[in-house]
Design goal:
Aldehyde Dehydrogenase, Chain A, domain 1, Aldehyde Dehydrogenase, Chain A, domain 2, 2 domains, seven-stranded parallel beta sheet, 41% helix
Length: 434
């Protein structure tokens, strides 16, 4: 498919050869990034539209490769949540294709004049959006990240080096092949979307070192251990979140039916995504009317509930929560439930135990909602909506390559705008500085 895929995963590549191959990928990506920075929006969109079409026409082959990945993961004892993240079917491939088409339909994020001003000496200064350069994306089981990350980086004029997990190795290979065919059809360099072609974990370490100064930013997307390693070892900037400990707070003035609908979706629509609710907080002032219906609803749906003393009194099936439960991202059909003494205590709990990812309040009191949205220091804060909307596609970004919970540059869904930087362009007429 491309010059770097001749080395197959699991072949036991020697460390020196791995280092040289990764370094060459970085150099090629840097050259490709210079080409992409000047590429037209039409060329980038053509590449994306062709790739989206190939996802559809290659769906059977992609699903067959994915089934191989799923069976391998099942043999290794992967959890149901992990298998859900890994599995592809026709509907998910169609969604993947539509996501890439949505990215193609968005305005080009580069070359935008963000600000213009003139100095007293006549200098005219423009701030203009530019690509970041070369982005390394390290991810685990989700094969669709191959499409999302490749498409977003390309649209923003960046070259990307994709290092997917061994779990999705075969699925990602075919998805990557479609992306490369799209590049070729638009006469863009194959190496603009590169994929690490072997499974050795040492490849991650090479990428985190920056490949000889050729990687400008790293985006990890995966579990806590992966992201912790990236944040600890990376020698280049990182857009990352460590985990998604997501809270839903049911305020005293919450509508019960609305709360049931939101809580059910936030927890159980897909339990293995980072926007899934992990802790439910109930205002003590509505616990007598809201706690039991919400807990019973979750239990009857097959969700394990771990609660404080008040919650345990609702039903014998509720398990007593321990301190660690309030700090746990389950990514399973498990939720921790606690009764809190009002809005301030809910915010204190979120600050103490949360991960600054996504948190939600359910209430009909606009003042309480505004207070929550202002005082909860998370990348995404919500009012009366499921936390499963914490997604770049749902935000209108066309897609995302992760949710950033830091406070520098990118925060929240990392979409096209977050994958750009800017420079200053100064226009003069012979001015000199005294």
């Amino acid at each position: 498919m491309d010059r770097f895929r001749v080395i197959q995963g699991g072949a036991g590549i020697e460390p020196r050869d791995l280092h040289q191959t990764m370094l060459a990928m970085g150099q090629e990506a840097r050259r490709a990034s210079r080409h992409l920075a000047l590429a037209s929006a039409q060329a980038k969109n053509t590449a994306l539209m062709v790739a989206a079409g190939l996802f559809r026409t290659s769906a059977r082959e992609i699903i067959a490769a994915n089934q191989r990945d799923v069976e391998d993961a099942r043999t290794r004892g992967a959890s149901s949540a992990a298998l859900d993240r890994l599995e592809l079917n026709e509907a998910r491939i169609e969604s993947m294709a539509q996501g890439v088409e949505a990215i193609a339909a968005l305005p080009d994020p580069t070359g935008r004049v963000l600000a213009v001003y003139e100095r007293p000496n006549g200098l005219k200064i423009e701030r203009v959006s530019t690509p970041l350069g070369v982005i390394g994306v390290i991810y685990e089981s989700r094969p669709n990240v191959t499409a999302d990350a490749g498409a977003l980086c390309l649209k923003a004029g960046n070259a990307v080096i994709l290092r997917g997990g061994s779990d999705s190795f075969h699925s990602s290979a075919l998805i990557h092949q479609c992306l490369v065919e799209g590049l070729r059809s638009a006469h863009l360099p194959d190496t603009a979307i590169a994929r690490v072609p072997f499974k050795e974990r040492e490849a991650v370490g090479e990428l985190l070192k920056g490949l000889g100064g050729n990687v400008d930013v790293i985006v990890p997307r995966g579990g806590k251990s992966l992201v912790a390693r990236v944040q600890e070892e990376a020698r280049v900037p990182v857009f990352a979140h460590l985990e998604g400990i997501v809270h839903v707070f049911v305020h005293a003035r919450a509508d019960l039916e609305k709360a049931k609908k939101i809580v059910f979706n936030a927890k159980l629509r897909r339990t293995g995504i980072c926007g899934a609710a992990e802790t439910l907080l109930i205002d003590r002032d509505c616990a007598h009317t809201h706690l039991s219906p919400l807990v019973l609803m979750l239990l009857e749906a097959g969700c394990e509930v771990r609660g404080d003393e008040t919650t345990c009194a609702v039903d014998r099936r509720v398990k007593a929560a321990i301190e660690e439960d309030w700090r746990t991202e389950y990514l399973e059909r498990i939720i921790s439930v606690k009764v809190v003494d009002g809005l301030e205590h809910a915010i204190d709990h979120i600050e103490n135990y949360g991960s600054h990812h996504t948190d939600c309040i359910i209430t009909e009191d606009q003042r309480a909602a505004d207070y929550f949205l202002t005082h909860v220091d998370s990348a995404i804060v919500m009012h009366n909506a499921s936390t499963q909307f914490a997604d770049g596609g749902e935000f209108g970004f066309g897609g995302e390559i992760g949710i950033a919970t830091g406070r520098m540059h990118a925060r929240g869904p990392v979409g096209l705008e977050q994958l750009t930087s800017f420079n200053y362009r100064v226009h003069g007429n012979g001015q000199t500085r005294p």
